């Protein structure tokens, strides 16, 4: 996005990417439909960025959801608002969008250099790239660093830049998993039978905060929107106390009393599983989850069983590792950059996207802020290029 804005302003741009092709993380996000932004009001959207909301405010107001949706449409991918308010491209995929975007970049004259890995700076401030043919040094008037966080390294965002950027004297908070699943020590039987089975329409509560949605049982734990929403709270609680209780309400639409009344209509010959399915309509995966939580037989008394249905207590000792998280918390400290992402210590070098220390829930907020910070940095870079200091060389280097 920064390349597009810079090239449109007449700047000669090269994109260096260490993978053999561009946009692999975007394609991965496209597998879930590519939730590109959210339709709620701009003020509500900005609040989702928590501690970073004030820093992101200007970028999100300049290039917010309306501008992002118009940009998608301009690439032949109009967007629609899903029932949850999330915004998706009409094709529900990233491939067509990425294809027309790369074609646009080529038309604008952007050079794309793949298999170029940025490894840092030379003493005079040139960019050091490693390529299959050997090292290459690049002297640029302006640089936008956009190397992502540390999740899903196999699509390219390895987080290897952290040590390099730190060695230039810039504060980088450790990358930690955000929007991630929780690990649970399932019995072999439960994991084999239910891995990949969704827990539809549940309510997940941590520390008194409840989020509804669909969760997904995996072989190693639980994933899905309502789990991701709590992952930072769970991670922080585990850091402090070693574990965290995640309570799952398997029937959020019925009160404990009406569940108890229905469960009381159990026929004597029914097994617990049959009785629960017949009286309150819960599927096998939900019954299995309750058994996992209590470690065996379910309570027979209707009131106790109803209480369990309303709050299945899962003792969580770990969240999924960064490599399996949707996004990273941590990154370049926001007080190291101006509000357009230019590093105070390295004038002419901008940082954007998930490299920066902001965090947000799933819902389109991650891509939205990545795009918004890219536009802000590119606009800042255009201004910087028109100032005389942009031509000073060698760079004043920390
Ligand atoms: C499974 C999954 C699903 C997701 N779904 C959504 C979603 O639906 N909606 C949403 O808002 N967000 C989603 N996200 C998050 C979103 O994809 C990211 O927040 C976003 O892609 C971050 O953009 P970025 O440009 O900062 O980094 P990235 O998209 O990670 O891009 C960084 C690029 O830099 C390259 N690179 C890294 N190091 C170097 C180096 N040293 N030299 C050269 N190149 C380098 C990488 O190969 C990569 O191409 C999802 C993430 C995952 C993992």
Description:
- It is a single chain.
- This protein is of the alpha+beta class.
- The protein has helices spanning 2-8, 24-30, 42-47, 53-62, 65-74, 95-107, 161-167, 188-194, 225-241, 256-263, 272-280, 284-294, 302-310, 365-385, and strands at residues 14-17, 37-38, 79-81, 86-89, 111-114, 117-121, 127-131, 134-138, 143-145, 172-178, 182-183, 198-206, 209-217, 221-223, 244-249, 312-316, 318-319, 327-332, 349-351.
- The strands form six sheets. The chain has a seven-stranded antiparallel sheet with strand order 16-15-12-13-14-11-17. Strands 2-4-3 form a three-stranded antiparallel sheet.
- α4 packs across α14.
- The longest helix has 21 residues, at 365-385.
- The two termini are 28 Å apart.
- The mean pLDDT is 95.
- The structure holds flavin-adenine dinucleotide (FAD).
- Flavin-adenine dinucleotide (FAD) is lined by residues 16-19, 24-26, 28-29, 32, 34-35, 117-118, 146-148, 151-152, 156-158, 160-161, 326-327, 353-354, 364-367, 370.
